[in-house]
Amino acid sequence: MTERNHSADTKNASLSSSTSSIGRNAPPALKMGSAPSPHSSHRSSFAEHMRGAPTSPRASRQPSLTQQALQELLNNPPTKGGDSKFQGRDWKTVRLREIVDPELVRFVEYDTSVEDATSILVKNGAPNVVLLREDTNSRHAVGTFDYSDLNAYLLLVVGLAQPEERDIASFDELARKGREGKPIPLKDVKEVGGNKEPLITLDENTDLCKAIEVFGSGIHRILVVEEGSQNVVGILTQLRLVKFFWENRSSFPAVNQLYPQLIKDLDLGSKTVMAINGDKPLAAALELMNNEGVSSLPVLDAQNNVIGNISQVDVRLLTKSTSLPLLRSSCIHFISVILSERGVNDGKDSFPVFHVNPYSTLAHTVAKLVATRSHRMWIVDAPSPASSGPSTPAITPAIVVPPSPITPLPGLAGPTPVTSTAPTHLAATGAVAPSISASAISAMPGASLSGRLSGVISLTDILNLFARASGLNPHDPDEARRARRRSSSSSMRRSMDSSRSESISAIAGRRSSVSEREKNGPAPQGLGISRGRGP
Predict the structure, then answer these.
(1) pTM
(2) Which residues contact 416 (CB under 8 A, 6 or more apart)?
(3) C-alpha dihedral over 167, 169, 172, 178, to 10 degrees?
(4) Rounded mean pLDDT of 400-426?
(5) Dihedral of the alpha carbons of 159, 160, 164, 167, in degrees to the nearest 10
(6) Residue 376, CB half-sphere, CA atoms under 13 Å: how many?
(7) Is the predicted pLDDT of residue 155 greater than 80, yes or no?
(8) Mean pLDDT, the chain, whole residue set
(9) Dihedral (C-alpha) 501, 405, 153, 377: value to the nearest 10 degrees?
C-alpha cells in the first residue's frame, strides 16, 4: 500500500513538473493571445516599417539609350543581314531571277468568278495580285486582278461607278448580277478598272538596271518570264525592289550613301497630294482612289493634320455584305475598323505610322515603307492646334453634286478638285456619314504623333532617285502622274457633262431602276457587294 502511494506521488510530481515546464516555455502563439500591457514597449506599425523601405532600383536606373543614341537609331535603323551572295557585287549585275520567288505567282482563269479571285487575293497577301490566263495549262499572263480592280468592282456594284454613256447598260447588268449573288467571271469585269497600267514583262536574265528604270518611271509591277518564252516565273514589285536594296544596303555603296541624307536635302517627293477629311464617308475615299489612280489616301482633320491612312488593300474588309454599311460611315470610323482587324487577326496593337517629316533621313523613310508595306509615305510639318470649332458638315442626302471629297492643300499647286455625282443610294436611304467632333478626331492614336500634311514620297520617287544616283536615266515619274490625272479628269468631265445635259429627274429616273431592284431584290450572296440599307 505504501509502495503504491509512493508511486502515485512520484507520478504527480512528474506531471506537475512537466506542466510547469510547459507554462514556462509557452509558444509565442499562446502569448500573443493575451492582452498587451499598457506599459509595454511601442511596436512600429506596418506603415512605419514601409516608410523606411529602400527605394526601387528602377527609380535610379539610367535609360538604356541616351537621347542622342535614340535619335541615331531613328535616323539609321538597323537592317537584317543581307544575302551573302550579293556581297561585293555591283547591283547592276544582279539578274531578276535572283530576287523573285516563283512560289508567289498565283494564276486564275478568265472564267474564274470575281468572288473566287478575291478569296485568293485576300488569302495569299504579297505581292497582292492574281494573274489571269486563258486555261489551266498555261503560264502566260494575259491580265491581272488586284485591289484596284476589286475597288472598282465594289464601286460598280453599289452604284458609284461612272461609266461612259455607251457602257451604262452593261454596267447596270453587272451590278444587278453582283447584288443577286450570281457568279460574275473576271472576263466580264476586265474593263471596269479603267486606268490600269500596262502589263510589263522582262526576261528573267535581265539585270536590275532595266527594272529600276521601269519602276522609276512610274510602273508598279513587272512580270518576270522565262528566257525565250512568256511563261511567268516571278513578279517583281516596287516594294520588293526597295526592300532588296534596303536589306542589302552594305553591298551597294552607290545606294547606301544616300540613306543618311535628309528628305529636304534630296528634294524628294511631291507637293501635290490627294487627301480626304476624316468626317467624309468611306465611299468618297474609294471613289477618289479609283478616279485618281492612287493606291492610298491620307485622312486629315480640319487643320490638315494627318490622323490616319486608307489604302486600296483595306477594301478587303468590305467584301462581305455585313460590312457594306461601312461605306456610309466616316473615314475615321473605318480607320478604327482597320486597327481592330490588325489586333484580332494579326495580333498587332501598335498604331502604324505612315508619315515622316522633311528632316527625316532616307533610311528612316525607307524603313517605314518596308515595315508598313506601304507604297507611299506622307510628309508632315509641325502639327496644327486642334480645332475647337464644329467639324466639317456631313454630306446631306441629295441627287445634286455634293462638296468635293478632295481636300486641296492650301498654297500647294495641284489639280482642280474633282467633284462627283452624289451617291444616289445614300440619298434614297437618307444615310449620311456620322458627324465627327474635333475632340474625337484629336483623340485618334495618330493625331498627336503627326503634323500638317505638306507632301508625299512614293516608292516610285525612291527608285527614281536610286536610278539617277547610279548613272541611269529613268523617265520623269511626274509625267506619268500628270498623264494619269489628265485621263481621269477627262473621263470624269465626260461623265459630269453627260449628267449636266440631263434634268435632275432624268438622272433620278435612270438611277431609280437600279434603286428599285435594290429594294425589291433578293438578299445579297457571294461577295455580298450590294447597296442594301445598312444601319
Answers:
(1) 0.69
(2) 489
(3) -90
(4) 33
(5) -30
(6) 23
(7) yes
(8) 72
(9) 140
